[in-house]
Amino acid sequence: MERNKDNRSEGQFLSAAEIREIFDKIFKKCITLSTKSVVRMINGIFGTDYPDDSKLTYNWTEMVKDDDAMGKILADCIVTVNEVHEYHMEAQSYNDNEIVLRMFGYGYEYAKRGAVEDRNRYILKFPSPVIIYLYYETEVPDEYIIELKFNDGNEGYEYKVPVIKLPKMSPQEMDKRNMVILVPFILLKLREWVAIDKKNSSRKIMKKSPEELKTFIEDDIISTIEKNQALGNITYVDAAKLKDYTLLLRDYICDHLDVEGLEEVRGMTDHSLMTDIDILCEDYETRIENLQKNNDDLQKKLGDNIRKLAASYMEQDPSLTEDKAIEMARKILE
Length: 334
Known about the structure:
- The protein is an alpha+beta fold.
- The protein has nine helices and ten strands.
- It starts with 15 loop residues before the first helix and ends with a helix.
């Protein structure tokens, strides 16, 4: 695929460097939310049944290089559950068949660190792998395979890595697999709705109206977060952070996609992305503003009444100065 000087493929709305900058950080934040939410996602992805209070240990590898070949992987995270079972999760943002080779390499390096020596035998335990495609430009396989063969005539061994295609998953499917903590990345579907204006090829437009995009964000993302919080699948803090991550992704995409009709969505969805604390703060600020306004109105009315009473005193006693009359009126009314 042809790339420009920024390492951005033709039609790709963000370069590899930009992707690593924002998506990597948010993915890592999502998979380090509450233990309960992460354990449930591991159960949903790998078909396990760990209890919510299982112990998680994060093993962040340091093997990713900052070059074009290695930089395509967004996050390299191996999670150990209850100090026994390891799970290797990779987030990927666009097509790359070589990812399975790097995952095998990461898995091997990790297994080598914990190799068990038994006389003339070394036992290497690879973590269970999965690739999570947050977005891709062309179709990706359901599974990647490395076939290991040796010149001894025996059958080879297949290293298999299943693929989860987030863009094809509905909110209901994400619920079923306990993957709600990745729901902010549904926003990347916005890329699918970008079109070139037939009347002006240099102008990009959205295929959907701002109202449709607003409904998409509120129904597919915000409602999913709030429903899972209500069901106890995620904590209140998880829900608040997921809304924050959705807000960050929305603003980042709006800033970089440069498509007419998208900017309007920002203002239309601000309130939907507010957390309870945000709403309480906004309500408090509104109350303060109303109290200040009411106080200003009362002060104006008091001033009018003081002036009227002072004028009445001066009519009754022409020798009174205005200042003295106002002073007398203040003592009565204040």
